[in-house]
Amino acid sequence: MKRILIAAAATIAPLILPTGPANAASAIVVLFADSNFAGDSESFDKPTNCVDVSDVLMDDVSSIIVPKGYEVVLYEHPSCVGSALGTLKAGGHPDLGSANDRTASLRAFRR
Ligand SMILES: [Ca+2]
C-alpha cells in the first residue's frame, strides 16, 4: 500500500508548478488612457484568453506596455471580435497610431 501511495505522489508532483510574484510581474500587460504611459491605467496578468478593457479605458487606450516574451493583439470590439487593430511586440508602445482610442479588448500570445 505504501508503495502505491509513493507512486501516486510522484505522478502528481510535476503538475504542481510553482507560481510566484516574480513570474507574474514579468507577464503583465499595462494599458494607459493617454500617450506616453500617462493617465488612467489598467493591468492584465498574462491575458492569453481574451479580456475586455474596463469601462474607464474602453475606446480610450493610447499607450501600452507589452511584457517580454509576449505579443498583444488589439480588437475594436469586446470579446475579441471585429477587426484586429494591430499586433504589438514586447516593449513600450507610447503611441498607438491608428489604433489610438479604439481598443475594446485584447489577447496576448507567447513569443
Ligand atoms: Ca486616450
Q: What's this model, at a glance?
A:
By secondary structure, the protein is mostly beta strands.
3D architecture notes:
The chain is mainly beta. The protein has a single domain, classed as Gamma-B Crystallin, domain 1 (Sandwich), CATH 2.60.20. It contains 2 helices and 8 strands, in the order ααββββββββ. The chain has helices at residues 2-12, 21-25; strands at residues 28-34, 38-45, 51-52, 63-66, 70-75, 84-88, 91-93, 105-110. The strands form 2 sheets. A 4-stranded antiparallel β-sheet has the order 2-1-4-7, with no helix packed on it. Strand 1 and strand 2 form a beta hairpin. The longest helix has 11 residues, at 2-12. The radius of gyration is 18 Å and the shape is globular. The model is unreliable at 12-24 (pLDDT under 50). The site of calcium ion (CA) has 5 residues, from strand 1.
Give the helix/strand layout.
Layout lengths: L1 H11 L8 H5 L2 E7 L3 E8 L5 E2 L10 E4 L3 E6 L8 E5 L2 E3 L11 E6 L1
Antiparallel strand pairs: 1-2, 1-4, 3-8, 4-7, 5-6, 5-8
Bound molecules: calcium ion.
Helix proportion: 10-25%
CATH homologous superfamily label: Crystallins
Point out poorly predicted stretches: 12-24
The N- to C-terminal Cα distance equals: 45 Å
The total of beta strands comes to: 8
How many domain units? 1
Number of helices: 2
Structural class: mainly beta
Largest sheet geometry: 4 strands, antiparallel
